[in-house]
C-alpha cells in the first residue's frame, strides 16, 4: 500500500434536514416528451422538450418557482434524428442529423434557440455535410422501423474556444483485418465558424486499434486516445506473460493534410482499462483513468494520471493505488475477507468502475469521479420453447479522488449507494455540483440508509420507487464527508412527487438547485433546494 487511512476520518457525519431549505412552487401543465433539457441564466430557466417533430420551449423562474410562458415549434424536418441540445458560448442549439437520400449525403443541422424570448429561431442551418453514410447506434422506433442515431459526437475545449464534432464513416470493407477506420474531424470556433476539417484515415486496421476518447484544445488541435494491440491478435495478454499485449497511443491532428502525430503511452506492466483526456491549461493536457495489476478490464486496482504537452510529449506519469480500507467499506464480511486474501497478492480491486467526470481547479488540481456501473442480462426459458430476456441496470458506489496541482494525492473517498432498475438510467446515478469549497453528490437513496455506517451494507434503492433525496457533501480541502438528508419523494412539504430524475437537477447558484418533478393531475412543479452554507 502506498498509504493508509485512519478509519474514523471516513465515517460519515450527518447534517439535520432542518439545515436544508426546501421550497415548492406553483404547479403548471405537464409536457410529456421523450427528451428534456434544462438551462438557466440567473433566475431564468429554459426547458427544451422534444416530442416527435415538436419542440416545446418553456420559460420558468427559479426565484418565483413559477411558469412564465411556453412556445411550440412543429417544423423540424421529417426523418430527423436528435443528436445534441447544448449551450455553447451563451448560445443555445438543437443539433440533429438528416439523411439526404437523393444526394446520398449525411447532414448535421442545427436550429438556434432564443433564450430571452423562449422561442426557436426560424431557419435550418447545415453545419456538416458528409458524402456517404455515418456509423451510429441502431435503435427500434416501432414495428419493423429502425433508425441509426448518435452519429455525431461533440467535444469542447476548456474555455469553449473550440468545438470538435467527429464521426466515423461506415466502412466499405467489412473485414476488420483489412478495414481502416476513417474518422471525420470538424473543428469550429466560438461562433461556429469553421477552423478546419479533415476525414482522417486511422494508422491501423479496425482489428488492431480501438478508439477510447476524443478531445480538442483551445488552439484547435484534435486528439484521439486509442488502444493499439502489439501483434495481430486481440489478446489482452499473451499466455505465460505478465505484461499487457496492448498499449495506449495518443493521436494528435491539426488539420494539416491528414498528418497524425503519435505518442505511445505505457504504464509498465499495468493494464489500462478506462482512460479519458482533458485539457487543463494552454500548455498541457491530462490523461487520467483506471488501471489493473492483472488482466481484468472489469476491475480497478488504482488511478493513473499523466500530462501531455501540446507537442505530444508525455510527462509526469503517476499512479495511485486504491487502499484496502476503502475497498472494504460498505461491503459484506465475505467480500471483505475476499479482498484481504487478494491484497496479500496485491490483487484487491474495485469492480465495474466507470470514469464519469473530471474537474480541474484553478491551481491545476483534479477531481476524478468514478461510479460503479454494470448491466446484467437475465434470460428465462419456458417449457413451451419460448424465452424471455431482460436487463437490470446497476448504479452503485462512487469513488472520488482529489489530486493537487503538484500531482500529490490529497484524499480518496468511497461514497456508498446501491441503485437498481430495469429501464436504463431512469432516476438513478448522481448529480455533481460544487459550492463554498465543497462537492455535493446528489442521488436518490433507500430511506433505510439514512444512518448508514461503514460496517453496514447499503439497502438497495429501486428505480421508480419512493426514495430519499440525499447528498454527500465532501470538503475539497480535507475530503471530510457529511451526509445531507434532504427530503423524501413521498412527502416534499406535504406533496408526493413522481418521475424524479437526477438528470433534471439544475444548479442555479453556488448553494441552490431546482428540479422539475411530476405531481400528477397532469401537472409539473419546480422544487428548489437551498443547501446550508
What does this structure look like?
With 533 residues, the chain is mostly beta strands. The protein is built from 2 helices and 41 strands. Strands 29, 30, 31, 32, 33 and 36 form a 6-stranded mixed β-sheet that branches. Strands 1-38-37-35-34 form a 5-stranded mixed β-sheet, with no helix packed on it. A hairpin with a 5-residue loop joins β29 and β30. The radius of gyration is 24 Å and the shape is globular. The protein starts with 12 loop residues before the first strand and ends with a strand. Mean pLDDT is 88; it is low at 1-18.
The N- and C-terminal alpha carbons lie at a distance of 36 Å
Number of strands: 41
Indicate the proportion of strand residues. over 45%
Low-confidence stretches: 1-18
Outline type: globular
Rg over alpha carbons: 24 Å
User: Which bin fits the share of residues in helices?
Assistant: under 10%
- Mind summarizing the main beta sheet? 6 strands, mixed
Total helix count? Answer: 2
What class, by secondary structure content?
Answer: mainly beta
Provide the residue-averaged pLDDT: 88
Amino acid at each position: 500500500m502506498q498509504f493508509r487511512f485512519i478509519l474514523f476520518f471516513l465515517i460519515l457525519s450527518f447534517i439535520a434536514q432542518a439545515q436544508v431549505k426546501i421550497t415548492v412552487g406553483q404547479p403548471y401543465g405537464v409536457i410529456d416528451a421523450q427528451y428534456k433539457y434544462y438551462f438557466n441564466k440567473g433566475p431564468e430557466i429554459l426547458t427544451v422538450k422534444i416530442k416527435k417533430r415538436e419542440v416545446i420551449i418553456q420559460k420558468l423562474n427559479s426565484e418565483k418557482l413559477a411558469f412564465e410562458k411556453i412556445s411550440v415549434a412543429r417544423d423540424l424536418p421529417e426523418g430527423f434524428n436528435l443528436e445534441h441540445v447544448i449551450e455553447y458560448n451563451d448560445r443555445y442549439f438543437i443539433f440533429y442529423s438528416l439523411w439526404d437520400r437523393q444526394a446520398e449525403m449525411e447532414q448535421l443541422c442545427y436550429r438556434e434557440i432564443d433564450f430571452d424570448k423562449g422561442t426557436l429561431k426560424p431557419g435550418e442551418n447545415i453545419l456538416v455535410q458528409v458524402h456517404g453514410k455515418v456509423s451510429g447506434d441502431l435503435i427500434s422506433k416501432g414495428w419493423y422501423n429502425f433508425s441509426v442515431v448518435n452519429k455525431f459526437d461533440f467535444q469542447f475545449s476548456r474555455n469553449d474556444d473550440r468545438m470538435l464534432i467527429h464521426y466515423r464513416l461506415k466502412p466499405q470493407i467489412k473485414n476488420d483485418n483489412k478495414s481502416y477506420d476513417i474518422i471525420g474531424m470538424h473543428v469550429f470556433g466560438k461562433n461556429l465558424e469553421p477552423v478546419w476539417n479533415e476525414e482522417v484515415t486511422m494508422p491501423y486496421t479496425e482489428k488492431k486499434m480501438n478508439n477510447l476518447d476524443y478531445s480538442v484544445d483551445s488552439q484547435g488541435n484534435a486528439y484521439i486516445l486509442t488502444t493499439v494491440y502489439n501483434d495481430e491478435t486481440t489478446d489482452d495478454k499473451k499466455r505465460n506473460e505478465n505484461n499487457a499485449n496492448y498499449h495506449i497511443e495518443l493521436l494528435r491532428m491539426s488539420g494539416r493534410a491528414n498528418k497524425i502525430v503519435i505518442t505511445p503511452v505505457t504504464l509498465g506492466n499495468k493494464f489500462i482499462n478506462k482512460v479519458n483526456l482533458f485539457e487543463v491549461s494552454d500548455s498541457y493536457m491530462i490523461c487520467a483513468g483506471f488501471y489493473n495489476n492483472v488482466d481484468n478490464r472489469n476491475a480497478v486496482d488504482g488511478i493513473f494520471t499523466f500530462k501531455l504537452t501540446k507537442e505530444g510529449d508525455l510527462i509526469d506519469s503517476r499512479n495511485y493505488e486504491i487502499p484496502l480500507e476503502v475497498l472494504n467499506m460498505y461491503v459484506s464480511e465475505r467480500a471483505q475477507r475476499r479482498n484481504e486474501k487478494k491484497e496479500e497478492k496485491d490483487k484487491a480491486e474495485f469492480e465495474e468502475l466507470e470514469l464519469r467526470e473530471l474537474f480541474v481547479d484553478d491551481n491545476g488540481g483534479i477531481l476524478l469521479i468514478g461510479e460503479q456501473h454494470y448491466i446484467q442480462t437475465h434470460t428465462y426459458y419456458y417449457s413451451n420453447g419460448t424465452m424471455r430476456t431482460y436487463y437490470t441496470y446497476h448504479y452503485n458506489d462512487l469513488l472520488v479522488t482529489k489530486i493537487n496541482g503538484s500531482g500529490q494525492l490529497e484524499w480518496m473517498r468511497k461514497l456508498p449507494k446501491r441503485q437498481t432498475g430495469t429501464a436504463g438510467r431512469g432516476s438513478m446515478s448522481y448529480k455533481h455540483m460544487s459550492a463554498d469549497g465543497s462537492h455535493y453528490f446528489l442521488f436518490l437513496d433507500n430511506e433505510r440508509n439514512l444512518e448508514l455506517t461503514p460496517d453496514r451494507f447499503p439497502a438497495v434503492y429501486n428505480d421508480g420507487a419512493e426514495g430519499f433525496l440525499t447528498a454527500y457533501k465532501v470538503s475539497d480541502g480535507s475530503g471530510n464527508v457529511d451526509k445531507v438528508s434532504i427530503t423524501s419523494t413521498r412527502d416534499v412539504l406535504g406533496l408526493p412527487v413522481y418521475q424524479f430524475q437526477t438528470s433534471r437537477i439544475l444548479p442555479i447558484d453556488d448553494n441552490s438547485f431546482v428540479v422539475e418533478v411530476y405531481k400528477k393531475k397532469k401537472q409539473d412543479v419546480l422544487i428548489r433546494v437551498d443547501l446550508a452554507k
